[in-house]
Amino acid sequence: MKNLAQLLEALHKLDTALVEEHHLLCSSQLPSVALQHITDAKSQLLATVGYLEQQRHRLENTLGWQAPYDGLPQLVQRWQQVQQLSQTLRDKNQHNGMLLNQQIDHNAQALAILNKNNQSLYGSDGQSRGSNLLGRKIVI
């Protein structure tokens, strides 16, 4: 079934995207633009996988077949590859999600510290405030 070969190809591309995402999430500084590109690529690949799955189900209904395709050795092997790769991708995606949540928590903590210690030099009216930070105020 050509559909399973296409599905495997899309899953391998998704695996590559998840590996790249993992490298980005583990880098010392999170490159947001590159991460956004990977997120977009993952979304497109997931849409492709969804479409191929719909096609597979329609083809199965037409031919009267059903996964795991007992009695069709070539399809059994491909289906097992799809199942194994899907499990691996799920695990990688969960791990990347955990890394992303750690980044979010770290950023939230940093923002909390900055907001707590924020002593603005200028008020909303544009006038300086906190003159004790700058020393004496000179008026001309």
Describe this structure in words.
It is built from four helices and no strands. Helix 1 (2-26) packs antiparallel against helix 2. It is mainly α. It has helices spanning 2-26, 32-63, 73-116, 131-134. The chain is 75% helix and 0% strand. The longest helix has 44 residues, at 73-116.
SSE class: mainly alpha
User: What is the arithmetic mean of pLDDT?
Assistant: 88
Total number of helical segments? 4
Kindly state the number of beta strands: 0
Alpha-carbon distance between the two ends: 85 Å
Compute the gyration radius: what is it?
Answer: 26 Å
Low-confidence stretches: none
Shape: rod-shaped
The percentage of residues in β strands lies in under 5%
Brief rundown of the structure:
The chain is built from 4 helices and no strands. The protein is mostly helical and 140 residues long.
What are the SSEs and their pairings?
Layout: H1 2-26, H2 32-63, H3 73-116, H4 131-134
Helix pairs in contact: 1-2, 1-3
Features:
single chain; rod-shaped; mainly alpha; 140 residues
